[in-house]
């Protein structure tokens, strides 16, 4: 009941003032802690290489080569994380960095890629989608989003020794299957509830408030309340901006292949 009342209160409140994040000189976590109980790992699937971010490049006088055949890739090293300072900026492949998504930056893996990251200090694991470049500090092998770092319990220490293992997803055979795999639909996840009836009422309220279609994605006893689907990534990002102006700061984008029919209303 408490979560549901928070949702209603948020929707009835006035818009928050739009303070710029771009003036930050040092990185930091968001003021409101994120609850990851119901946030799933990134789901590995075939994606074509991004048009941006997949050429060899140079940073701080050092040259980096993007791997063209990374099958079986695995490495161990230090992981760090990045948060509010970079939130809302473009990533190396042209997407917008969302610190609440399960994403990461890597110096040489193709963009996008999917990797499993294991915190060797506590055994916790998660799967992230690599869509950015970095970290450019000696000894560090991957830069995690705020959400991923929280899931691996790295926020307090700032860094941790991790094992990074690449998921290899083969390209679908046949032109039709490939085209379907390359097409995405997008949702903006707002909240999660364990009561179906309350989730349905909340979805209806959100839909009316933002004048957008709503969706409920069920996984076990968890009902994820989302806006969408959308078929344009830029439009989806604009929806996230609007939603966060209404104090729903933890809203984030979920990407699904159009062939995936798991969504339930």
UniProtKB/TrEMBL annotation:
Localization: Cell membrane
Keyword presence, Nucleotide-binding: no
Q: Which UniProt keywords apply?
A: Cell membrane, Cell wall biogenesis/degradation, Lipoprotein, Lyase, Membrane, Palmitate, Signal
What's the EC number here?
Answer: 4.2.2.-
Ranges of residues in domain SPOR: 180-256
Query: Which example biological process does GO assign this protein?
Result: cell wall organization
Source organism superkingdom: Bacteria
Q: Which membrane topology term applies here?
A: Lipid-anchor
According to the UniProt entry, its GO molecular function terms are: lytic endotransglycosylase activity; peptidoglycan binding
Q: Which Gene3D superfamilies match?
A: RlpA-like domain, Sporulation related repeat
CDD domains, per the entry: DPBB_RlpA-like
Cellular component GO terms held in the UniProt record: cell outer membrane; plasma membrane
What general EC class does the enzyme of this chain belong to? lyase
Q: What is its main location?
A: membrane
Task: State the NCBIfam families in the record.
Answer: rlpA (TIGR00413)
Supply the PANTHER family for this chain.
ENDOLYTIC PEPTIDOGLYCAN TRANSGLYCOSYLASE RLPA
The free-text function statement in the UniProt record for this protein reads: Lytic transglycosylase with a strong preference for naked glycan strands that lack stem peptides.
As for family, the record states: Belongs to the RlpA family.
* Name the record gives this protein: Endolytic peptidoglycan transglycosylase RlpA
Lineage, highest ranks first: Bacteria, Pseudomonadati, Pseudomonadota, Gammaproteobacteria, Vibrionales
